[in-house]
Amino acid sequence: MYRISKQIHNKIIDAKHILLIPHQNPDGDALGSLTAFKQYLHKIDKPHTAFCVTDVPQNFRDLHHVDSISSDQSIWQNPNIDVVIVFDSGDLHYAGIDKYIAKLPKQVYIINIDHHATNENYGHLNMVITSSSSTAETLYNFFKHNDIEIDNKMATSLLAGLVTDTDFYTNGATSLSSLQITSKLISLGGDFALIKDIIFKNKTINVLKLWGIVLSRLKKHQEIDLVYTYLTQEDLDTYGVSESISDGISNFLNNLNDGEVCLLFKELPDNKIKGSFRTTKDNVDVSAIAKELGGGGHKKAAGFTIDGPLKEAARTVFELIKNKNLN
Ligand code: 5GP
Ligand code: MN
Description:
The protein is of the alpha/beta class. It is built from 13 helices and eleven strands. The chain has helices at about 1-15, 30-45, 90-95, 100-105, 135-145, 150-165, 175-185, 190-200, 205-215, 235-240, 250, 285-290, 310-325, and strands at about 15-20, 50, 80-85, 110-115, 125-130, 220, 225-230, 260-265, 270-280, 295, 300-305. The strands form two sheets. The chain has a six-stranded mixed β-sheet, with helices on both faces. A hairpin with a 4-residue loop joins strand 6 (about 220) and strand 7 (about 225-230). Helix 1 (about 1-15) crosses helix 5 and helix 6 packs across helix 8. Manganese (II) ion binds near residues 29, 88 and 115.
């Protein structure tokens, strides 16, 4: 990986204009990695733009540079763009930029920085470290390999990635290196308290009421030993809650000591259904099922999006699991 780190660095130094891309509906890892990198580019005066195909969750607006991530498609018309860096996305479709890349008049150089085992290595350079807790950890290694100083803003951003993907150091991604890097980032001036407030202490009464509704619908599919629940657009309207704020529910299901796998179905505005798998069982790999459904992720946390309505989507997923083995 040291060699790839160096190659990426050379490409960045030579680039005219770099486009930074998180995956759509970005989480703390995608945003933390992107903003840490943005701060680095800012410091070396490298022209760049950050673009996200969807809105960025409101709770992250206190993280430096998040407010400068654009959703304006016209940025793709900038003829100087020659390098595109994608953070935390296993494929270009999940990043939401496959269609933009296809339409560009000239080829751009794609750099893929990630940690998902399902990553399709779609870049010209791929720094995909599957043993990393987070893309932020992968990026920390990139900065180290290239002797790039991590300032307090970059440290805070990287902390957002580590905290998000280890679910506050509780899930299977939590490792010795994730903890060592965390302490290093704090010693470099990373603002852990800010990240805690952004990621953990961000729920209104209505959000927790919504969690209550979703949790009250938990059911177990005995035959496949799967615990599931769902969230509808009507629920979001009733409680005036945006979709992204419900993200923590799927992680919270890791608290269950019942069933091999948990699954949260979420109705999207376009009548598609997003599924989020979680498991804490050593012998279960949910990324394999997610991949069969057109998605991806990690062995212990993976997702997909399929056509609705909810009942139909649930039937499709349950049938697939019945026919395959979870482990
Ligand atoms: P979540 O269920 O919280 O959205 O995602 C769990 C993990 O799976 C995350 O690491 C996320 O990046 C990945 N993931 C979720 N949905 C998809 C998808 O549709 N495609 C890909 N490639 N990865 C996904
Ligand atoms: Mn990640």
